[in-house]
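=== RUN LOG ===
request id: a7f3
mode: sequence -> structure
chains: 1
length: 473
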Amino acid sequence: MVCSRRFERRFATAVVASGVVLLMFASVAQAIDRISVLPGFNAPVNAISEPDSNGTRYLGGNFTAFNPWDTGNGALVGASSGDVNPTFPKVNGVIGAAAADGLGGFYIGGDFTCIGPNTSGSCDGTDDVVRNRAAHINANGSVDPAWNPNLDDDVFAIGVSGSNVYLGGNFTTVGGIARNRAAAVTTAGTLTSWNPDLNGAVLAIAVSGGNVYLGGDFTTVGGIIRNRAAAVGTDGAGTLTSWNPDLNNDVLAIGVSGSNVYLGGEFTTVGGIARNRAAAVTMDGAGTLTSWNPNLNEDVRAIGVSGSNVYLGGWFTTAGGIAHNRAAAVGTDGTLTSWNPNVNNNVRAIELSGSNVYLGGWFTTVGGTARNRAAAVTTGGAGTLSSWNPNVNGVVLAIAVSGSNVYLGGQFNRVGGTTRNYVAAVDNTNGTLDLAWNPDLTYNLLYSVNAIGVSGSTVYLGGFFNRVGGIAR
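=== RESULT ===
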């Protein structure tokens, strides 16, 4: 997998005698993104009250969205509800790959160097731990202390099989030991002797039977020519097989089903034969190209296989000359299906679980309905959009499903935004949003709340607005 990559106002307040009267003049408070444990907002916070008797602070400003969970670049969300789990740890860099461990936890890879609840940069050694580019997060949200491959460069792909975790990327050492772009680490954390030795990045991994299928931008494996795709045995040092599709450009996604290996990427030929961005090659022998030919007009970045369908996601807008925006399903017999979510921007990740296809990427709508960067669509028919809606504020690059949980990884720092026009109430100690307290000031780009005072059970607001809860004020 591959990662691509104020406004200031000043106010002063005067609190006068009985009750609280708020007057706006000139003075302090730059746009605030985070204050101590308080979560993030999508625009300036201009006023923060002292805590009331219940430990609640009231915030006002120009914001219209309150994002209670500052997740870093990874988040765990419910598979049916889309609600974020706030206990999962943050990371300080991009997550480009994720894989379930089968026990409720996840292996993650990317360009991060630190994991922990307080991560915002380098580790301080208090609540966070050093993890260079790969980590294992247990089901309870803790970082596995024994699993620490310690890679010197980015991880783009992860495959889990039995007691081994296969890593692909741009790294050249694992724990200080030479491993060029691919390595296997046991689930106990031990580096194995498996060492394919590639001359370019590994961007996709699939494990099936006794083989690990690798895709990327490499041209040699163990010094032997293999253009962008290769199969290496799972045993010993990783014996290179005769499987050799020979593609003319990068392979970005791999799916294995039945006797075929499905490839997606930027290529336009396989073994010298035209195949635009997607192809199927037999698993046996040297890898015979099949007649399966979706013929897409732009890159394929993600593949998922379920039953008789191959689900594709990427940059494309047509499949076989027929409009399919960024997502399509093609039967294993090569027939384009009616499944057509109609996504308005690029799809970067696909994961199938039960009757759902989970999509991640840059998009903001699916079938014309708002879905920010993550969505779930049914596998059947034309692909019905589900209510699952994590609402992510940046690109989703990786998805993994384990039971009732979905792990999202990418380049974002807010998941699960809750609308709050100009004013919100949050708990003083943990930053939890008070869901019941919502004055709902009418949104207008020119409006704002600029001052707040609390007296007894009453909150006083001052600023530029004319309606509260639909009533003129």
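=== NOTES ===
Residues 1-39, 426-432 have pLDDT under 50 and may be disordered.
The two ends are 52 Å apart (CA to CA).
=== END ===
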